[in-house]
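seq/struct pair 1
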Amino acid sequence: MMAMLSANAQVMASLPSPTESIEVNGRKAKPVSAWVDFCNRHAEECAVDTNEAAVITMTPNIWKQLVQVNRKVNRDVKPVTDMDHWGVADKWDLPTDNKGDCEDYQLLKRKLLAEQGLPRRAMRMTVVLDEEGEGHAVLMVRTTQGDYILDNKTSAILPWGETNYVYVKQEGNIDQQWVSLGGVTSPTTTAKN
């Protein structure tokens, strides 16, 4: 209920409160193998255009776009495991049939936001350990207000430090190489499922 109230309040907010950006240590990390397969099938979704901005200038309109896309995808896509959906342990794909798991939600959010003109380079697929220690994928949006997380577990967009996640790695914004986030733990425990 609290996440829903936060999500509703976010629609009314002109801008989110500023937050810190996560520190990316720059060490290379092995990409998720299902990501590599996804990129082989959808090269346009994985291409890095270094002419795009690596950070989005946050405006009330951009915030509204983020909130609306996050809520729409969370509402429209039905959760299903990759094993039940595809018969494999891990497959990243766009949920064209409105079914998917965590990374599928985030890939669709990024696609829709990029179609609205936001730079894909500032929207990074990110692997975390969730509050139960399980692997989970979120979309980190790097902005001038800080780094925010779009997640299928809540329709509230949270600053990265308020998710109660351990940040493992994310796709790089210079090339297709992934980078380590060094297992940075978010400093608070405010996230609710």
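seq/struct pair 2
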Amino acid sequence: MTKTYVLVHGAWHGGWCWRDVAANLRKMGYYVTTPTQTGVGERAHLLCKDITPDTFVTDIVNHIVTEELSDVILVGHSLGGISITGAADRIPDHISHLVYLDGAIVESGQSVFSTMPPDIVAARRKLVAEEGRGIFMPTPPPTAFGIPEGHSLTDWVRRRITPHPAGTYESGLKLVHPLGNGRPRTYVVCTNPLHPPMAGAREWVAKQDGWAWQELATGHDAMILAPTEVALLLSAVG
């Protein structure tokens, strides 16, 4: 049976990061899109202080609606978790399953920063103030995403990551319905190593009922480090 996947990237990334996962899923006969959200990737020219979680949610909602996609398996990596949560809140009838790949989890009114360890939040805010003109978080090295120096794609990632709009971390996510809005939900933890900024998300999901839980023994940027394994996991969803 043909499945439809919309793969949503995290901070500093763009749709480009799903290249190998998308290729694997397409070889299996599935339909895949990899939208890029406002202000990053090939849309970096739109970076500004006004970008919030609502902007990112609107990006994904408009993509799904404009492409006339239905029964979507909506996958959010890292910060992309807020985008898929918001999309499910607005257009649940288009979505069959939510997959959080080491993804951020925030409830209505919460900001991503409110769910992260305080030391990480303080360090990122300092960078925004000192280097990001109060608008963006400068690009970290690929090692920040679990990609080791010397990996075959380290330079590829370094060339493509772009500054990230700070407002997507500072502003709260607006939800009308409970998180997930009744859609089936799977959380995938990248365990080798665990990504410290997602500690709050992991702890929250572990306390909830009704979530499927999967683990991948790879670093945070699993779609780059283990694209075959990610594609196989996603192919089994739904």
